[in-house]
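quick one, 104 residues, struct below
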Amino acid sequence: MNATPEKLPLSRCQIALRIFGAVLLFICALMVILGSTVLAEQLRGPRFILYWTSCMLVTLSAIIIALWDMLLVRRALKRTRRELFEREFMQGDIDHKLRRDHED
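---
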């Protein structure tokens, strides 16, 4: 039996969330690199706190986007499993399938 796993289709919302999350992660990585190298001398006092707080907020936003995407994936998986169960086991030919399994 060759069972090929099928990918769950992505909605437009999920695609937008993933793109937005990737952009946020890129911004965060860029901020960390720039804040540690190029801008290190200029970040003193309140600028330091403001810069790294904004970097932390960008990171938290990316985490929230990732959790939201995970919720959407879990919801789609649950819906797909329910549809598969209904298609396989809730049809009228269940007796035929059971008899065929017992004959084997």
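The chain has one domain: 12-92.
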